[in-house]
Specification:
Blueprint lengths: L45 H17 L6 H9 L10 H12 L2 E5 L5 H9 L2 E5 L16 H8 L6 H19 L3 H13 L2 E4 L2 E4 L2 H4 L4 H7 L4 E4 L2 H4 L12 E5 L2 H10 L2 H7 L17 E3 L4 H4 L11
Parallel strand pairs: 1-2, 3-6, 5-6
Antiparallel strand pairs: 3-4, 5-7
The structure holds 7,8-dihydrobiopterin (HBI) and fe (iii) ion.
Length: 312
């Protein structure tokens, strides 16, 4: 029986998940194998394509000038505005010519170790369904719009593309120490809700920000949230909320900086020093922080989502 100590680092085949590592259990649909890949992409209909086009148009009202320049360039390079839900075969062909990544369909959230394994092989797992008109503004499960519009353009940036692969490899190491939650926080504050300093100011590169209508303005311009320079050790000790706007965003200097901070940090030394639960609240500012903007937290103090508080 494999144990935590002999976790594999060869990712050509899906490594066996040790029995003493905890990840949230997910019920695998009968039609997918151990890799959780769908046999084929959904055949989207005209209404699905119309939903994609409307979501796309809505984002184009708010992203220019606020989204990271590599994200805007990625949208163009992949022609994501050609209309309708992109076909993954063609998309993967274009993307792999640029950075060697492909996009593969999965039915739902997949287990952490399978997700990391795909990333370690430069395959991005993307939802095989699109939201409905009823859930147009917000869905918790990642659909094809969040995954492809939000995540895939960034994978055209060569340094970001390498960071994502390293993240997948780091996932296997985190399992050995049972510190998946800590590594999940790094994903959250970079890949999903990351901000970057550019010559023209602070821009967003996180997919959770870029795929929705509200958070882009809040994250880059509002007074409520903290904006703090990213430090990998600090972020991995920080709690996060999944169903409301973030009280704190972490800002990188460049994708090179993010890549180096992650690759050069010796996680074999970091993981044992992290407590199993988070140390810092998601709205906290601590003495070691390099603070760009100290948030008023007005949005949170007024009650956040559901209270009618304005995202100011
Ligand atoms: N599955 N489909 C899908 N998409 C994700 O973003 C995802 C996942 N499974 C696990 C997972 N993310 C987490 O491991 C990361 O968010 C850390
Ligand atoms: Fe995502």
């Amino acid at each position: 029986m494999a144990t935590q100590l002999d976790i594999e680092t060869d990712f050509t085949r899906l490594p066996e998940m040790p029995e003493d590592v905890f990840t949230a259990p997910l019920k695998k649909p009968a039609h997918v194998g151990e890799d959780w890949l769908e046999p084929k992409q959904t055949d989207y209909g005209a209404e699905d394509d119309a939903i994609w086009n409307d979501l796309f148009a809505r984002q184009m009202e708010v992203l220019p000038g606020r989204a990271a320049s590599s994200f805007m360039a990625g949208l163009q390079k992949l022609n994501l505005n050609r209309g309708g839900v992109p076909e993954f075969g063609k998309l993967s062909e274009d993307l792999s010519a640029l950075t060697g990544w492909s996009v593969v369909p999965v039915p739902m959230l997949i287990p952490d170790h399978v997700f990391f394994w795909h990333l370690a092989n430069r395959r991005f797992p993307a939802g095989n369904f699109i939201r409905t008109r009823e859930t147009f503004d917000y869905i918790q499960e990642p659909d094809v719009f969040h995954d492809v519009f939000g995540h895939v353009p960034m994978l055209t940036d060569p340094v970001y593309a390498d960071y994502m692969q390293e993240y997948g490899r780091a996932g296997w190491k985190a399992m050995r120490y049972n510190r998946l939650k800590a590594l999940g926080a790094l994903y959250w504050y970079t890949v999903e809700f990351g901000l970057i300093q550019e010559a023209g100011g602070i821009k967003a590169y996180g997919a959770g920000i870029l795929s929705g209508p509200t958070e882009i303005v809040f994250a880059t311009e509002a007074k409520s949230p903290n904006r703090i320079m990213l430090n990998v050790d600090r972020v991995m000790r920080t709690d996060y909320v999944i169903s409301d706007l973030q009280p704190t965003y972490f800002v990188i200097q460049s994708f090179e900086d993010l890549y180096h901070q992650t690759v050069e940090r010796n996680f074999d030394r970091l993981y044992p020093s992290l407590s199993p639960s988070f140390t810092y609240a998601n709205s906290a500012v601590i003495d070691v922080d390099d603070v760009l903007h100290r948030g008023t937290q007005e949005y949170l103090l007024r009650g956040g989502r559901g209270s009618g508080a304005k995202p100011v």
